[in-house]
Structure formats: structure tokens, C-alpha cells
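Deliverable D2.4 — example input (C-alpha cells):
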């Protein structure tokens, strides 16, 4: 889930309050149904509510639900002066999922992010949860298997 967005010509606090209220209701419903929610920050061009690991920590603290956890998207994170270490510092074990992608939702190594360093930070923080490759760039649409093969090759290069 994401926090949504408020009007960009209004104070962030209004959107924050509405988002917190909605996420609280959604978290209670998820608790009743035995569902875990993963809250993803978005770029400032997409949302004016949760954009950084600090914003994410504040919202998860406010909601304080056993069914609401945080997630990290390395592409989105790259728009801020943050690293995976910042997410682990701010969220600890409340960080439960990672979209592990290069800038622009590319295959690791196809963009300009230090993906090997990000991977090392994730491992150094003891993370053993799920990571997915949210490959959304159109260059992969016609040959998705090639993108999958490139991901597999990249993983092998950093884990061997």
C-alpha cells in the first residue's frame, strides 16, 4: 500500500492526517483478516505524504499496528540522499520487503545506482526477507525473459 497524496498546493500536514486515518482503518481491517500490509514510500512527484525512510518510520510509528510494515524500493530511494542503511536504521525489523531495482525500475546493472553496494548493505543488516525485482521499464516488455536472465546473472555475480 502507499500513503496516497494530498493536494500539492495545500500543507503536507492535511494529507498526512488523512493518510494516517485511512491507513489506521485499513490496518485494523487487515488485522481482522490476518493480512500483512507493506507501506511503500513514493517519489515527491507522486506523493506529498511519505517520501523518505524517516517519513515511513513516523507513519508506521503512528499507526502502530502489528499488521503494518515498511518496505524499501531502491529506485525510489535513489531520489533522496538515502541508502538501505538509512532504512534499516530508521525501521529495523519493521522493514519487511524490498523492491531491488536500479534507477527507473531497471534490472540491476542497467542503470547508474551502486546496486552491489546496496546489496552488501542489505546483507550486512541481516535482512533475510523477500526481495523482488520490480522491472517496470518498457525496454523489457517485449523480451521479459531476457530481463529475468540478466537479473539471474547479476545475482550470481554478487553472490559468488
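Example output (designed residues):
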Amino acid at each position: 500500500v502507499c500513503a496516497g497524496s494530498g493536494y500539492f498546493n495545500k500543507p503536507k500536514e492535511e494529507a498526512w492526517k488523512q493518510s494516517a486515518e485511512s491507513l489506521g482503518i485499513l490496518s485494523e481491517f487487515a488485522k481482522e483478516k490476518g493480512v500483512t500490509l507493506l507501506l511503500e514510500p513514493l517519489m515527491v512527484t507522486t506523493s506529498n505524504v511519505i517520501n523518505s525512510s524517516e517519513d515511513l518510520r513516523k507513519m508506521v510509528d503512528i499507526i502502530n499496528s502489528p499488521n503494518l510494515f515498511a518496505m524499501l524500493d531502491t529506485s525510489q530511494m535513489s531520489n533522496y540522499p538515502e541508502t538501505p542503511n538509512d532504512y534499516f536504521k530508521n525501521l529495523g525489523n519493521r522493514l519487511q520487503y524490498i523492491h531491488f531495482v536500479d534507477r527507473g525500475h531497471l534490472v540491476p546493472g542497467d542503470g547508474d545506482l551502486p546496486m552491489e553496494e546496496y546489496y552488501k548493505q542489505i546483507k550486512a543488516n541481516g535482512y533475510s526477507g523477500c526481495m523482488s525485482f520490480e522491472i517496470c521499464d518498457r525496454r523489457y516488455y517485449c523480451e521479459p525473459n531476457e530481463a529475468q536472465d540478466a537479473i539471474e546473472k547479476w545475482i550470481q555475480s554478487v553472490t559468488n
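Helices lie at 12-33, 53-63, 74-77, 84-91, 115-124, 144-159.
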